[in-house]
Specification:
The chain is an alpha+beta fold. The chain is built from 7 helices and 8 strands, in the order αββαββααββααββα. The protein binds zinc ion (2 copies).
């Protein structure tokens, strides 16, 4: 079983009070962030759940969806980031929110886990036909003589359509912050390069958006990696990591804006 890794996993945790999620805010011209602090405890609880139950089903039983098995994280797809956000509601009760990055085994929605930053029906109605067209062009491309004029033309067309599809999908995302403002990915993004694929799909943005929409005040956030180490080796099984630089940092400044210090 894969769990032999689990018992030996090492955990690297930043010093108390150091931000685990942060980003530069264009309107305040400063960095906003949240520490890991007590979220680490709940992150470890989640790790324990994975070790015990081998499923991300938070109420595991004999009827658990087999697609939620953690075996998935040790196969071709490799591991994934998981995040835990500790919040306070309006009556000062502690609430724990959980998220996985991107999709889990093809699923965007899993009970007990935070939803994506877009309406799933809207997303699918854009993505499904778009991907179909791009795939069809790929098939045409294979039938052409490589480097012929036709081959070049199809390749350019496919590239163009992929870019357009990505822009259409990015436009569907809605990011809410703690001033109760809402922005698209384009409006929230503080980076100078193009928006990378997968921006907004990490745990941090999912958790913070849900908190902002539901009047919850975030206190601490921790993210850890679970499963087969990623190909580059930058993510290791069972380790805690701060929010990513490429995708999260450029939107977290906006998303954390308006959050009162505890
Ligand atoms: Zn990220
Ligand atoms: Zn700000």
């Amino acid at each position: 079983m894969h769990m032999q890794h689990a018992s030996k996993h090492t955990t690297i945790i930043p010093k108390k009070g150091i931000y685990s999620v942060s980003g530069y805010c264009l309107s305040c011209r400063t960095i906003h962030g949240l520490p890991m602090d007590e979220a680490i405890h709940y992150g470890r609880e989640l790790i324990h759940h994975f070790q015990q139950n081998k499923t991300i089903d938070l109420q595991p039983g004999s009827d658990s969806d087999p697609r939620l098995s953690t075996e998935y994280l040790f196969g071709k797809a490799r591991g994934k980031m998981f995040g835990v956000l500790v919040c306070k509601d309006l009556s000062n009760n502690t609430k724990i929110l959980r998220a996985f990055s991107g999709q889990y085994n093809g699923l965007w929605m899993v009970e007990g886990w935070m939803p994506p930053l877009f309406d799933l029906d809207t997303f699918n109605s854009t993505n499904v036909p778009g991907e179909k067209t791009i795939k069809a062009l790929g098939t045409q491309l294979e039938a052409c003589t490589p480097k012929s004029d036709e081959w070049r033309a199809i390749r350019i067309q496919r590239k163009q359509l992929s870019r357009e599809l990505m822009q259409k999908l990015h436009a569907i995302y809605r990011l809410k912050n703690f001033h109760n403002n809402e922005a698209s990915l384009f409006e929230a993004y503080s980076g100078t390069n193009g928006i990378p694929t997968g921006t907004g799909d990490c745990c941090g943005p999912k958790l913070l958006n849900y908190a902002a929409v539901n009047n919850l005040t975030p206190i601490a956030l921790a993210e850890f990696y679970w499963g087969l180490d990623n190909k580059s080796g930058s993510k290791k099984h069972g380790r805690f990591y701060p929010s990513c630089r490429e995708k999260c940092e450029p939107i977290l400044g906006y998303m954390l804006c308006g959050l009162k210090r505890q």
